[in-house]
Amino acid sequence: MAFHIWTDTSANLPAALCKKLGIGVLPFHFIHNGGAEECCLDTETFPYDAFYADLKAGGTATTSMINSEAFREIFEQEAKSGNDVLYIGMSSGISGAYGASVVAAREVKENHPDRRIEAFDTKGASLGEGLLVLAAQKLQKAGADIQKVLRELDRLRTHMMQVFTVDDLMYLRRGGRISRMKAVIASVLNIKPILRGDEEGRIVVTDKTVGRKASIRALADDLIENIDEADACGVGIAQAGCTADSDALIQRIRAKLPNIPILTVPYEPVTGSHVGPGALALFYISRQARTV
């Protein structure tokens, strides 16, 4: 039975790549400086550097959860066309979008009992979600059915490492991750946290470094020590207006792993507005399952 793969813009995949691979993308929305609601479907033309420079200068970006109706419209259209659907979505630990997709899938299946509509929670965001989408597409192209794809995604999800650092701790404070006093003190002392996505898809602080260069070294060392080189997912890097730091991270990785495939993207604005300008993230499949 034919099935179509869908994801959302939080997967942080280039639009041209999704189009080439036949992956559907549901847009998440944001509001920049109190203006009209926007989305970032055209990844080639979005002004990332200007967006993050504006946030760093005091601009604002807010987001809202997408509702089940947006998912229902897509699932209904696919079902009427005779297609099954596999939606691979953003972590339920940081967004309600996956829950909305489950509600929509249940309702569409009631109207189309001969169709299979599945939603998968990656427990990740940005390329922690996107690399799993690409893995699913490879399996589909090789002839795997939805059930086989879901089994492999479930395995990969437990090994998907999501490690990142941020330049401004005040963005974490706004999200309730640390207190305002700790954020101010850390900023004064130039402390840069190392954060991970835990097994439930929530963001947790696991270490602290002093200075940006030290945080970049920590990210690279983490990957070099733990990556499963036999896995085909490769490495994902997302950066929020800090291309030079991303290049430095790539250079450190390439010095030890010269042949590992690396997909590098600017943070899409919805997730990027939560981690803040200067965020630098690394995604890869680890030999060991993530436990934090």
Overview of the molecule:
This protein starts with a strand and ends in a 7-residue tail after the last strand. The chain has helices at residues 15-21, 48-56, 68-80, 97-111, 127-141, 146-159, 170-174, 180-188, 212-226, 243-256, 269-275, and strands at 3-8, 24-26, 29-32, 37-39, 61-63, 84-89, 117-121, 160-165, 191-197, 203-210, 235-239, 262-266, 280-285. It has 292 residues and is of the alpha/beta class.
Compact description:
This protein is an alpha/beta fold. The chain contains eleven helices and 13 strands.
Please name the defining characteristics of this protein.
Hypothetical Protein Tm841, Chain: A,domain 3; Rossmann fold; alpha/beta; 292 residues; 2 domains; 23% strand; four-stranded parallel sheet; globular
CATH top level label of the largest domain: Alpha Beta
Supply the helix-strand structural class. Answer: alpha/beta
Q: Work out the strand percent.
A: 15-25%
| Order of helix and strand elements from N to C terminus | EHEEEHEHEHEHHEHHEEHEHEHE
Q: Helical proportion?
A: 40-55%
Q: Tell me what the CATH architecture of the largest domain is.
A: 3-Layer(aba) Sandwich
How many separate structural domains? 2
